[in-house]
Specification:
Layout: H1 3-20, H2 27-39, H3 44-57, H4 61-72, E1 88-92, H5 100-110, E2 115-119, H6 129-133, H7 145-155, E3 157-161, H8 168-180, H9 186-198, E4 204-211, H10 220-236, E5 240-247, E6 255-257, H11 259-269, H12 275-285, H13 290-296, H14 298-309, E7 322-327, E8 332-337, H15 339-351, E9 365-368, E10 375-376, E11 381-387, H16 392-402, E12 403-406, E13 416-420
Parallel strand pairs: 1-4, 2-3, 4-5
Antiparallel strand pairs: 5-13, 6-9, 7-11, 8-10, 8-12, 9-11
The structure holds uracil.
């Protein structure tokens, strides 16, 4: 075996033994591992083995910061020469009906903040921002670096997909984590999410960490642990990072699908729409003029400009489907409006996908008419399934499970559960 290959094997052997035995990896060990994953000199079994060791042994903050930086730097970072910042983005850990990015990006842009938003597709019961935007006929989510730069310069924001060059280590490691049951591991999640965000060339990042049945994190404790780790690693990587913990026990807003979520985002951008969507957007925006700008309609104009610059024609946005209504069987208060079941109903009707390469149906979804705490009369619609005859029985079953009505009024569910700010020092 050539000498340099022998040396490389010794390095990866030592890295594996270090983490296997519960010790911290050095920054240079982490750099060698990530570089080797991308070049192919670290084999897939070796990489999978280290992921399993990290899953079991964990990582301290210094290791997490080093892993995030190495993954960020595994491809060229985006940069914005000739455009004045600040450059700011938001990341949500994902939920049902979460169309906040569609409102927040143009709102921030209208407030003079530049938003280079690289977003993802939906998997399972949660929707993806790109799938929603692609419900706008012609909207392109595959902009190259030159187009990203042009749209950011001309409009002040873009929402597009990950380019092949952006944080390539994450693509390889995420696929391996899916194959090896090592996804649910805080340092690996933090590095995966933040490497893609930090490669956008940001000054500031706001995280929306969702909690509840429809979220990745089901308990406040788990969500806080993830949020605190992301805030420490984000700030430790030189990007001012804060997090909100927000409710995902029921959907955000009323629309859960693709085209219907864009329509609801447009309402919100024009100062209308559901109160919770508006409140969440304003909390994440964190700007004294945000309400005034939303109400003025200027953020909507900005959104329309972004859509046009990315090839989309908002005037052709439609969702023509059959409808089925779930109606309350008695008078009373809604005590359950479950994000997981509602997300599942939209998913089985075709709004979501199981594998990244599967298509989604832009038109179908669920429109929620009442949330927890609302009073309803017998026969009043609780939700409407927008469908095209796909898996209708299963979607109806999910909607039946999603709702409960009782004579006793429940406590209202708070939307904002907490915040995680950077610690001084
Ligand atoms: N989303 C990501 O991008 N990475 C993870 O590890 C989990 C969620």
């Amino acid at each position: 075996m050539a000498r340099h290959l022998q040396w490389k094997n010794l390095v990866i052997d030592q890295i594996l033994r270090t983490k296997r035995d519960g010790h911290a990896l050095s920054t240079s060990q982490i750099d060698s591992f990530v570089a080797g994953v991308v070049s192919g000199s670290v084999s897939r079994p070796q990489a999978a083995s280290l992921l399993a060791c990290i899953f079991i042994r964990g990582m301290n903050d210094a290791e997490s910061i080093a892993l995030t930086r190495a993954m960020t730097d595994s491809g060229p970072k985006l940069s914005w020469p000739g455009i004045d910042g600040p450059f700011v983005d938001k990341h949500s850990t994902g939920g049902v009906g979460d169309k906040v990015s569609l409102v927040l990006a143009p709102l921030w842009a209208e407030l003079g903040i530049r938003v280079p938003m690289i977003s993802g597709r939906g998997l399972g019961h949660t929707g993806g921002t790109l799938d929603k935007l692609e419900a706008i006929p012609g909207y392109r989510c595959d902009l190259d670096d030159e187009a990203l730069h042009r749209v950011l310069r001309e409009v002040g924001c873009f929402i597009s997909g990950q380019t092949a060059a952006l944080a390539p280590a994450d693509r390889i490691l995420y696929a391996l984590r899916n194959e090896t049951q090592t996804v649910e591991c805080i340092p690996l999640i933090v590095a995966s999410i933040l490497s893609k965000k930090l490669a956008e060339g940001l000054d500031r990042l706001v995280l929306d960490v969702k909690v509840g049945t429809g979220a990745f994190m089901k308990t406040v404790g788990d969500a806080r642990t993830l949020a605190e780790a992301m805030v420490r690693v984000g700030n430790g990587s030189g990007v001012s990072t804060r997090a909100l913990l927000t409710d995902m026990s029921q959907p955000t807003g009323e629309a859960c699908g693709n085209a219907i979520e864009v329509m609801e985002a447009v309402d919100c951008l024009q100062g209308r729409g559901p109160a919770d969507l508006r409140a969440l957007t304003l909390a994440l925006c964190d700007h004294p003029d945000a309400e005034r700008v939303l109400d003025s309609g200027a953020a909507f104009e900005r959104f329309a400009r972004m859509a046009r610059a990315q090839g989309g024609d908002l005037t052709r946005l439609t969702a023509e489907t059959k409808r089925w209504e779930l109606r309350a069987e008695s008078d009373g208060f809604v005590t359950r409006c479950d994000a997981w079941n509602i997300g599942r109903a939209a998913f089985v009707a075709g709004a979501g996908r199981l594998r990244a390469e599967d298509p989604v149906d832009p038109a179908v979804g669920v429109m929620v008419h009442h949330k927890v705490g609302d009073h309803v009369s017998r026969g009043e619609p609780l939700a409407t399934l927008w469908h095209r005859d796909r898996a209708v029985d299963e979607a109806r079953r999910e909607l039946l499970l999603a709702f409960a009505v009782s004579e006793v009024a429940p406590a209202r569910v708070p939307l904002l559960i907490g915040t995680v700010e950077p610690t001084a020092g």
